[in-house]
Amino acid sequence: MRACGALLLLAGCAREVHQYPHVWPQAFQARDCASLLGTYENEGEGSGLRKESLVGILDFERLRARERPARWVGLSMPAGGLLEVRDPVGRLRFVAERGEFGCDQGTLRVWYSDGGAGDVGVAWGWVTVDLTKDADGWLVVRIDEKSLALLGYVIPAHISGTRWYRFRPTAP
User: Fold this and answer.
1) Is 76 exposed, middle or buried (0-12, 13-18, 19+ CB in 10 A)?
2) Could you tell me which residues come within 8 angstroms of residue 111 by beta carbon, excluding any fewer than 6 positions away?
3) What band does 99 get if pLDDT is binned at 50, 70 and 90?
4) Which string of b and e fits 110-148 if b means at least 16 CB within 10 Å?
5) What is the pLDDT of the chain when averaged over all its residues?
6) N or C: the chain end with fewer CB closer than 10 Å?
C-alpha cells in the first residue's frame, strides 16, 4: 500500500495552455480549406517564448536534423484527399483516407500519433494541428498535444498543452 502511495506522489502531470494572443489580428474561419493553401514563411510568431517552424510543426518534428531550415513552406492539394506540404528540401504528404487530415468548416486539421519504448521508458503522444487564417491573411496554427508516459517504466506522467503560431504569406 505504501508503494502505491509513493507511486502516486511521484506521478507527474503538466499542462501548458496558451490563449490566442490578444495583440494578433482576429483569427476567423476560412470560407473553405482551399483558401488556406499557398506559400508561407517557415518561421513564425508564437504565443509563448518558443519559436517554431511551420515545416517542423507539420512534420511533427521528425526532420529536426535538417542542415538548413527552409525559408518558405507551400501548402497544396494536388489531388482530392491529398495534402502536400513542401519546402526547398522536399515534401510531406497527408492522405485523408488514412485519417491523416481533414477539413471541418474552413479549418484544415492534421492529426498525428506515435508511441514506443526507449531507454528511459515508454510514451504515447497525440497531436492535432488546426490551420486557419487571421484578418491580415496570415496562416494561424493551433497545436493541441497530449502524451502519456511511464518514466523508468514505473512513474506515470501526463503532459498536455495548447500553443498558437502564425505565419506570414510569401512567395517561394
Assistant:
1) middle
2) 99, 100, 101, 126, 127, 128, 129
3) very high
4) bebeeeeeeeeeebebebebbbbbeeeebbbbbbebebe
5) 85
6) N
- pLDDT tens by residue, 100-130: 999 998 999 999 888 888 888 999 999 999 9
The DSSP code sequence of the chain is -HHHHHHHHH-EEEEEEPPPPTTSPPEE--SSGGGG-EEEESB-EESSS---BHHHHHTTTTTTT-SS--SEEEEEEEETTEEEEE-SS-EEEEEGGGTSEEEETTEEEEEEEEEEEETTEEEEEEEEEEEEEETTS-EEEEEEEEEEEEETTTEEEEEEEEEEEEE-B---
- Please give the span between the terminal C-alpha atoms of the chain, in angstroms, as a whole number: 62
- Which bin fits 160, alpha (ψ -120 to 50), beta or left (φ > 0)? beta
Q: Which whole number is the average pLDDT over 58-85?
A: 78
| Cβ neighbours for 76, distance < 8 A, ≥ 6 positions apart | 37, 83, 84, 86
